[in-house]
Amino acid sequence: MGHVKLEGVRLIAGERTLLDAVSFEALPGELIAIVGPNGAGKTTLLRALAGFFAPAAGDIWLDGIAVRALTARQRARAVTLIGSDVEEPHGTSVREVVATGRFSYRPWWDWSETPEDFAAAGLALARVGMEEFAERPFETLSSGERQRVWLALALAQDARLVLLDEPTSHLDPRHALDMLCLMRGIASSPVSSFVVLHDLNEAAAVADRIAVLGEGRLLRFAPPDDALDPQILERAFGIAFDRVTAGGAIRVIPRGYRPAVPPLARGT
Amino acid sequence: MFDPRTLRYAATYAALVAATAAALLIGLFFGGSALSPADVLWALAHPHAANDASAIVWTLRLPRVAIGAFVGVALAISGMLLQGLLRNPLVDPFLTGVSAGAGAAIALSIAAGIAAPFVPGLGFAAGLATAFLVAALARRGTGIDAERLILAGVSLTALFSSIVALVLLRLGRTAVGQILAWLTGSLAARGWSDLAYAAPYGIAGLVLALLAAPSLNALRLGPGVARAVGVDVARTQWLVLGGATLLAASAVTLAGVVGFVGLIVPHLARRIVGTDARGTLAASALIGAALVPLADALARSLAPPTEIPLGVLLAFIGVPTFLYLYLRPTNATRLWGT
Questions:
Q1: What is the ipTM of this complex?
Q2: Which top CATH class is A4-254?
Q3: How many structural domains comprise chain B?
Q4: What pTM, to 2 d.p., does this model score?
Q5: N or C: at which end does chain A have fewer Cβ atoms within 10 angstroms?
């Protein structure tokens, strides 16, 4: 369960080949971080894993079934993706937002959620520590709380592959850490998780393995220690990195910060 | 045993149903001939009585109120569907060019001297054809692109409106009056048979709307989330577009261009019941069914024997209400919110 396999996947956006020859396997319960420069195809890869975007070549398998062969309903019960394109509903309680995750558990024309749907929504909220917020209007939540609600929606879906696109991007360090801990807790058999992260150190802290994208392909797919190799990172991002170990964890730091515009001369 | 949320919802909808029933009754009390409310109620209870009151209520007032309610429901749901699909609060049922296409066809057929009974049917067909053309232009992949839809709708509406303007400039007074009456909306001189022609299309549109509502509800959270939870976005787009077009076309065929209902009623509904698409649909239908017959009663009785055009009256009442509700400097409520 939650076993993902990619074979020779090529992703094309318009005329441009974003990624080619991507092959890897993720085991059930693994948390995989996807890192790489802007435009490397991280989000597109996530969308392909979710079955939203068809690869131009190759195949994506989830537990031995080709993702492209799934119907919208089967797909939603197997995979979920929370991206950055979420829209915030007004005049809706947190519980109702999370219950939307149960859409694929009833016929698409059916108007009413069942008590089981609301129970699943309640359970999902409890898992992200938001059960007291169930009746609160969504718009009264902070960014960190909203991000947890989106995660709860994904959990209410009971999918075995959870895909998250930059879940920590607008969060302060404390809330980002909370989010990372939640993600770590969720990724355990039978649920696997892929997370796009911009912060390499966040990836190092939580991921079982890291997929480094760059130069139009998968540069490395390995545990953090191996994946965050300064040479690989330099190829991916085009800048040099220093690697240190602090508090028992790997840290990679961009080297050579140099302001493009000289600071204004003071006290003229 | 009932949780307070359920009770509050039930109370809200009960109040809406009661208000709509009262509005329909008030609509029946107004008319050209002097009938007391008691006469009207007596006539309602005795449909086959052979007196004037019964005849007036059953052949003049009731069909007029019923058509008003039908038009109100159709336009309100049509507007709610399109606002929900495009997630744009400024969209109205005529976005797809339904009214402009119908208007051009009706103006041209009146100018060409086509017999009156055929004119609404021609308008209906032209309205549907225009919406179909707009949808075809907006197609991308298996679904519809929201921006292309708005652009195509606005462009074709402009084109057909100019055709109407051209016809108006070239025509004699009588024909101009006929066309203008149609362009400003009216429930005058309509009867049960007109309703019987339009109703099947309206009901078909309503069925599509009911089918689309759960998907539309998920779509509130953005197309990405909707897809992730298993919504077939393309299917939802076609259901909504088909439903909204059938509803708007049947309303336009019955009452001409009754503006503002389809824009403002979904906003009122969201204010009262929140943004859940299923709740908004039900509340929009109830408010629409109340608003149009009430406005029509006013249109008939403000300056008898002339009738103020329904569309004009609705704009006179609706625009200040809308501006008051949403654009008060002290009001921080967002247009797309509650």
A1: 0.89
A2: alpha beta
A3: 1
A4: 0.90
A5: C
